[in-house]
Amino acid sequence: MLKKIPLKIILAILVAAVLIIGVSWRLGYHQGANKPLSGSSGSHKLLFYRNPMNPAITSPAPAKDEMGMDYIPVYADDATTPIKSAQQQADDFFGDETKVSGLGVVTMTEQGIRLSGVQVVSAVQEKIQRALRTVGLVVPDETRIHRVQTKVGGWVETLLVNYMGQLVKKGSPILSIYSPELLSSQEEFIKTRQLALRPVADAGDRTFAQRLRQSAQRRLELFDVPPDFIKELERTGKPQRTVTLLSPADGFITAKDIFPGQEVKPGMELYTVSDLSVVWVDAEVYEYETRDVHVGQEGVLTTSFDPSLRLTGKIAYIYPYLNRESRTLKLRFDFDNKDLRLKPGMYVDINLMIDYGEGIVIPDSAIMDSGTRQVVFVDKGEGRFEPREVKAGGRSEGKTQVLSGLNVQDRVVVKANFLLDSESRLRALIDAAMAAKK
Asked: Is the same domain home to 309 and 424?
């Protein structure tokens, strides 16, 4: 019959057994963990766990980072992949794109997606428009500017338009001039007229006299002598000492270079008459906006100093060169100005509505633009996020039209995509190293 074992002995045996098992487990764990690090050749043996955000941080046991994400296990067949620091990863990200052959698919757990803040939205089919605002400068219409010049030499007798800004009408008198050449031309016209009116028996002499008269009259007309002056000269038969010149167009005097008594010479500019019933507005757009403008496109003119002023005009001309300093392209608008509310030299606002048409639209934040390519991450379900290169079109109000690379209802990442991008790049590097090893 077995003797009864005291309770104290049983407790001592149990404590000793627990201590032996604990020490054995600790020794076995460290040996198993350190053996691959010392050069074990196992094909798929666990080496350590690395931080998903910084591969330079590792742990011999499963752990979580500050965001609660699980450390990633690293096996012996991945040992040839060099571990890069956070700074090296940053250098790779902002460095030459050709260093990375591509981007890898990222797989995350539901908990990792939730803790990292990844958010996705669906691409939609809709129309996108953008308001383009620029500043314009009002200038006279160059096709409505007239230069008043004299075609004969002489002296100014009287100025009938004697200050800048004065409004003149077409055919209204502007100055009277004394010119010996005009005086002799009048006398020639009177004599040839008298010769043409003289009874001549020979028809040939009569035709010759008529031609001389027409030539003398034509000479006066080419000197800009008014038709009414020629009719009066023909009626009275007496030459006038001065000839009054008329305005060639309606408009305002915007330049005046003469005074009474001043000598003038042929070709000398006397006045500039500008018709402001139609004005130009020169506006500029940036180089990247040039693809959005075209001749005939409507623009709305507004001003900050007159809220009631709102005019609609069209782009009449696009200049064929850029401003080298500001990198802008000049546009020219035509605006009716019958009431003369627009004055040359004014600055105005020009608003253009750019219509990009209907297409696939996603939020701006979904696109990662490196300068050489544009990438989005597409949610493929079950925690898989696939990088996809796209071509972006017009942008407006936080949205971007995608010209290629996406389909309607594709779910794209709009938040925490930089986290996915860094993980995708690292995955691509590991895959490339493994492929090279094979």
From this structure: no
Question: Torsion-angle region of residue 18: left (phi > 0), alpha (psi -120 to 50) or beta?
Answer: alpha
Question: What is the rounded radius of gyration, in angstroms, for the C-alpha atoms of the chain?
Answer: 45
Same domain, 288 and 225: no
Q: Which residue has the tokens 């090296």?
A: 88
Cα(247)–Cα(173) distance, rounded to whole angstroms?
6
Q: The domain that contains 339 carries what CATH number?
A: 2.40.30.170
| Dihedral angle of Cα 88, 93, 97, 101, to the nearest 10 degrees | 70
DSSP-derived secondary structure letter, 373: -
Q: Is there a domain that residue 321 lies in?
A: yes
The secondary structure of 247-289 as a DSSP string is -SSSEEEEEE---TT-EE-TT-EEEEEE--SEEEEEEEEEGGG
Full-model pTM:
0.62
Tokens for 41? 């050749």
Joined together, the tokens standing for residue 17 give: 């057994």
Range of the domain at 288: 131-141+276-352
Strand-pair category, 374-381 with 368-369: antiparallel
305: how many CB neighbours lie within 10 A of its CB?
8
- The dihedral built from the CA positions of residue 150, 151, 154 and 157, taken in this order, carries a sign that is negative
Domain endpoint, select from 317, 352, 387: 352
Residue 71 phi/psi, 5° resolution? -65, 150
Contact 104, 96 (CB under 8 A): no
Helical (H) or strand (E) element with 395: strand 384-396
pLDDT, averaged in runs of 10, over the chain (438 residues): 52 49 38 39 69 77 82 68 50 41 78 86 88 94 92 93 92 93 92 79 73 90 91 90 92 92 92 94 93 92 91 94 93 93 94 88 88 86 88 86 88 87 78 67
> Which amino acid is located at 359 in the chain?
G
Distance CA 287, CA 330 (A): 10
Is residue 287 in some structural domain? yes
User: How many domains is the chain partitioned into structurally?
Assistant: 3
Q: Which residues lie closer than 8 Å to 131 by C-beta, 6 or more apart?
A: 351, 352, 353, 354, 396
431 sits in the region (left: phi over 0; alpha: psi -120 to 50; else beta) called alpha
Show the tokens assigned to 122. 């669906």
60-114 residue pLDDT tens: 888 888 777 788 887 765 544 455 555 455 444 444 433 334 678 888 888 888 8
